[in-house]
Amino acid sequence: MTECKSVKKGKVWLVGAGPSDAGLFTLKGKSVLEQADVVVFDQLVGQGILAMIPRQAKKINVGKISGNHPVPQGEINRILLEEAQAGNRVVRLKGGDPFLFGRGGEELELLCEHGVSFEIIPGITSAISVPAYHGIPVTHRDFCSSVHIITGHTRNAAQADIDYPSLVELKGTLIFLMGVASMPSICKGLMDAGMDPSMPAAVLERGTTARQRRVISDITHLVDEAEKAQVQTPAIIVVGKVCSLAEDFHWAEDRPLGTKKIMVTRPKERSSALTARLQELGAEVLEVPTIETDVILDNTALSEALKNIKNYHWIAFTSPFGVKIFFERLRELRVDIRSLTGLKFAAIGSATQKAIEEIGILVDLVPEIYEGRALGEALSHRVLADEQAAGVKQQILVPRAKIGTDEVVRPLKEAKLNYLDLPVYDTVEAPDHEFRWYDETVDYVAFTSASTVRGFVKLAEGADFSKVQAACIGEQTAQEARKYGMKTYVAPQASIDSLVECILNIQE
Ligand code: SAH
């Protein structure tokens, strides 16, 4: 009998990451990235996409190494081959589309030679999407009938081997990638070849990010205007009548948060609603969780409490995660939900309330202010009244984070009520140091708990925290942020909607 050994077979996915905006990354690219063992990426891949790389994946930055020199192409090809041959799922992540001036073809040659399997996942190219984010359609029936994408980068910078007369003849929109350094020769080349000196032209910098900028001019003045504006890379140059449409069609920066880059620090499983709301309003969102929540395993105290759940009168939840763990454990122990009959439910705020009500249990108490202390006080009030009415001592269960603040239970303690403070999950600070996430391009950092603030401080170690504009979900969170000198903005209600409202109202 032959033994069947399962050999883990490596493979390479050549993936286009799009121009930068994480929302422009393809669904297929994202799903492959989420399963990667190794990710080899370039300088132009947007931060929002880098933030999607799984924590445990090996990350190889070939865009820049310590001396600021990119890794030579031959070396990149070799890395891809070796990682795949070692049995890994390798994602080669490239800015824009991998086959448009992305050397994607070169990277496949060695893989092909060695019989390594690969897939190609195209990306949205900057050549078309960056103009779109400035309101420039690359074609328009009134102005042109073709579009041409040209590299402005040549091995011999002084003498670009661009055939200007042919380009002028085509009368289409011209898009130059990697052309910032050779802009003077491009404009001159076009004019010398007979292009109308008043032909509209644009330089579009850092397109699809919150920092995107454009200079709209004509080929005669573009170089001077770009110099005045101190245009930096990455930028594309567009030449053609369509450039004049930006004046009417610009849109990206006009969205309520269109020029804001916001860091969201809460754990991934809980950040999606906040991220989606901010993105809807046009913000560039960087999801970098600074804490993680881990279920406490072998939690005998929880099992005991659940088996004896009939002894309790009230249960108070302080997070949707606590609700989830509670009901999951209940099912695992084969305790029927009907044994909760008569038990009253309290929730710290609307999200927790929603999590309970989705199970089909209507919540009996939510404090007016969504905060620990308010919950503790409101609950004490109700329980004392219940005790009076029933004439028996009431038992309260508080399943929550292991290192939560005492704010919730303090009022219960002061009122001498019977409660069990039951840890069901652990919050650990988990700053991801692989990338430099925080820098001066971040406009606001959103904090939803004091622990996210502490995690952030570790993540951004060495940063000038007095420059951080912290949008905080409640006063307690803001107090923590102030300890480090951050400028704080506090949401009036401890809810996502209120936090978003608070961010929209920040007046700088
Ligand atoms: N494969 C990429 C292009 C790689 S060449 C694509 O399909 O987009 C690199 C050039 O792309 C840069 O020099 C710049 O001209 C352009 N570029 C890439 N991302 C850009 C962005 N976000 N804003 C402006 N230009 C960008």
Descriptive notes:
The strands form four sheets. A five-stranded parallel β-sheet has the order 3-2-4-1-5, with helices on both faces. Helix content is 32%, strand content 20%. It has four domains: 11-123, Tetrapyrrole methylase, N-terminal domain (Cobalt-precorrin-4 Transmethylase, domain 1); 128-254, 2-Layer Sandwich (Methyltransferase, Cobalt-precorrin-4 Transmethylase, Domain 2); 261-290 and 430-505, 3-Layer(aba) Sandwich (Rossmann fold); 296-425, 3-Layer(aba) Sandwich (Rossmann fold), CATH 3.40.50. It contains 18 helices and 20 strands. The chain has helices spanning 27-33, 47-50, 73-85, 104-113, 126-132, 164-170, 183-192, 222-228, 246-249, 268-280, 300-307, 320-332, 350-357, 372-390, 409-414, 450-459, 475-483, 496-504; strands at 11-16, 38-41, 58-61, 89-94, 117-121, 147-151, 173-177, 200-205, 213-218, 235-239, 261-264, 284-287, 291-295, 314-317, 344-347, 395-401, 418-429, 444-447, 469-472, 487-490. Helix 3 (73-85) crosses helix 4, helix 12 (320-332) runs parallel beside helix 13 and helix 16 (450-459) packs parallel to helix 17 (475-483). Residues 1-6 have low confidence and may be disordered. Helix 2 (47-50) links the parallel strand 2 and strand 3. It has 508 residues and is of the alpha/beta class. It starts with 10 loop residues before the first strand and ends with a helix. Bound molecules: S-adenosyl-L-homocysteine (SAH).
